[in-house]
Design a protein that fits this description.
Number of helices: 2
Mean pLDDT: 95
Structural class: mainly alpha
Oligomer: single chain
Helix content: over 70%
Shape: elongated
Distance between the termini: 73 Å
Number of strands: 0
Length: 64
């Protein structure tokens, strides 16, 4: 049980003294970057989906 307590103590020390946490400004800019990248990727996937749907619809209509 002493090993678990030592692990928790060392983890707390590492999180409070050794980890470099981002500033609020850095956190905001990273969040905006992730949001913009997610929107761009979603638009690309939507475009691909629309193109494939159009091609499949045209293909199936040509069979009948």
């Amino acid at each position: 049980m002493a090993g678990v307590a030592e692990y928790i103590k060392e983890s707390y020390i590492e999180l409070t003294e050794k980890v470099t946490w981002p500033t609020w400004r850095e956190l905001q800019s990273s969040a905006v970057l992730v949001l913009v990248a997610a929107i761009i990727i979603a638009m690309v996937v939507l475009g691909m989906d629309q193109i494939i749907a159009y091609l499949l619809k045209a293909f199936y209509n040509s069979l009948t």
